[in-house]
Design a protein that fits this description.
- The structure is a single chain.
- The chain is of the alpha/beta class and 314 residues long.
- The protein contains ten helices and 16 strands.
- The protein has two domains: 155 residues, Medium-chain alcohol dehydrogenases, catalytic domain (Quinone Oxidoreductase, Chain A, domain 1, Alpha-Beta Complex); 131 residues, NAD(P)-binding Rossmann-like Domain (Rossmann fold), CATH 3.40.50.720.
- Helices cover 27% and strands 28% of the residues.
- Strands 3, 5, 6, 7, 8, 15 and 16 form a seven-stranded mixed beta sheet that branches.
- Helix 4 packs across helix 5.
- The mean pLDDT is 96.
């Protein structure tokens, strides 16, 4: 099968599009024929070696975590899926494997593809959607009427977070640049803060949830923006903030929490239902074929992506 692999950490030119062996499955696994994948910042952070303490130095390594496609084969213990079923899902970004024509997964990694999305649209959802959902619902305990501030509301995770927060009946304020204001309003944001014109730290308003989808703020800085029992959720905690999260978990006041997204079939089902009820729709900025993955990574690294970057495989 064709796949994108790396044999060492480095710049985008370490990405190789070549033939590799098709994965074999065990009785508790499923083989998905991948029609589309997507590029997430964590993919190129793995490629650059920023996470090598966790990912190690075992090469070659296939990158990618998002996928959508059809089931090609099922193990003997699999009861709820069959060959030909259309699915979408994710594998761990640290594990990788989705930048390929086939990926080996377990039932927890997938859900039925939303009927109103094509494969490319569906592949844009899993990591971003799960990060936003698990942050707001599990960590933030979001409920109707909450005041939610989303930093980076026009990116992949942020664009999902705006729509998911609105589905809970929250009042959403987004932070983005001037060029993305209209885009963010169309997602459903009630208010927009243009960070090029206004310093968020100088505002007098308070929020029940501050979701930092781009992780460029810190708990000590934004603490004054939280309500008495407000929660700051970051997608990339520093070592100091990790300690703070443990300390604030013991208090009844303001809290710092960090999201470590995990594949979850139940959460994928929840996203599928939101999508099919027109409460969540993926925003795709650019689409590339898998063989042009180097260009896709370079574009992602600019930090100017509006929504998601997808990769066409079939």
């Amino acid at each position: 099968m064709k796949a994108v692999v790396i044999n060492r950490y480095g710049a985008a030119d370490v990405l190789e599009y070549r033939e590799v062996e098709k994965p074999a499955i065990n009785d508790d696994e499923i083989l998905v024929e991948v029609y589309a994948s997507s590029v997430n910042p964590v993919d190129w952070k793995v490629r650059q070696g920023h996470l090598k303490v966790i990912t190690g130095r075992k090469f070659p390594r296939i990158l990618g975590c998002d996928f959508a496609g059809r089931i090609a084969d099922v193990g003997g213990d699999i009861k709820n899926y069959k060959t030909g079923d259309e699915v979408f899902g994710m594998v761990s970004a640290l594990q990788g494997g989705a930048y390929a024509e086939y990926v080996r997964v377990r039932p927890k990694n997938i859900s039925a593809k939303p009927k109103n999305l094509n494969f490319e649209q569906a592949a844009a959802v899993p990591l971003a959607g799960l990060t936003a959902l698990q942050s707001l619902r599990r960590l933030g305990k979001i409920k109707q009427g909450n005041r939610v501030l989303i930093n980076g509301c026009s990116g992949g995770v942020g664009s999902c977070a705006v729509q998911i927060a609105k589905s809970f009946g929250a009042q959403v304020t987004g932070i983005c640049s001037a060029k993305n204001i209209e885009f963010s309003k169309n997602l459903g944001a009630d208010n927009i803060i243009d960070y090029t014109r206004e310093n968020i730290l100088e505002r007098n308003e308070t929020y029940d949830i501050f979701f930092d989808a781009v992780a460029n703020q810190s708990f000590p800085q934004i603490k004054k923006l939280l309500t008495k029992h407000g929660i700051y959720i970051t997608t990339l905690p520093s070592s100091i903030e990790f300690i703070m999260s443990m300390l604030t978990s013991l208090s009844r006041g303001k809290k710092l929490k960090a999201i470590f997204v995990k594949p979850d079939a139940g959460d994928l089902d929840y996203l599928k239902n939101l999508i099919e009820n027109n409460k969540l729709h993926p925003a795709i900025d650019k689409s590339f074929v898998l063989s042009d993955v180097r260009q896709a990574h370079l574009y992602s690294e600019t930090g100017r992506v509006r929504g998601k970057i997808t990769l066409r495989i079939k």
